[in-house]
Amino acid sequence: MTAEPMGHAEWSPDPVKQKRAGYTVEDVLNLPDDAPRVELVDGVLVVVPSPAGGHQKINWRLVGWLDQNLPKGFEPQMAVGVLIDAGTTLEPDALILHSPVDLDHHYFDPDQVVVVVEIVSPGTKRRDRLVKPSLYAAAGIPHYWRVEQDPLHVFAYDLVDGEYRLVADTTEELVLSAPFEITLPIRDIAP
């Protein structure tokens, strides 16, 4: 009786390259299909946890609502990234881009991005509340929306003098005049 191989080993980052902070956007684009979803921060790969069902439902409903209600000139997207610089990429839950959009791209430059949206989960609290907003702000992305779960709560921020300033805080209806007029009933995106 011989032992049968159990399949190939699961992908993981090269420890030397991680320690050197030597990963680039090109490396991320060339990861194997079985690699986990990652963000690149200053040359270091950060594995992004898979969102739970409620998180995904909120995102799916939000992007669907935006797709139906955004004015011309804007395009909602999900499961794509923002290219902050050659050593940093982020994967927001959703974003709104200036259209037209080249749908063959996975990463978009910050000047194409109008709004980034992060849906906070237990495993992403620190990154979504502190780390990612500062990176988005430094890249000049004009609007940041943070969605908290349980209860569903949306915080909208505008970039002012290099920092995000709170412009809306709601559990009922998100009403904004910038970057476009919007009235989003929060119940429409609830899981």
Automatic annotation (TrEMBL):
Q: Which branch of life, at top level?
A: Bacteria
Q: What is this protein called?
A: Putative restriction endonuclease domain-containing protein
Entries under Gene3D superfamilies matching the protein: tt1808, chain A
Pfam families noted in UniProt: Uma2
> What InterPro entries does the database record attribute to this sequence?
Nuclease_put_TT1808 (IPR012296), Restrct_endonuc-II-like (IPR011335), Uma2 (IPR008538)
What residues does the Putative restriction endonuclease domain cover? Answer: 25-184
Which source organism? Actinoplanes cyaneus
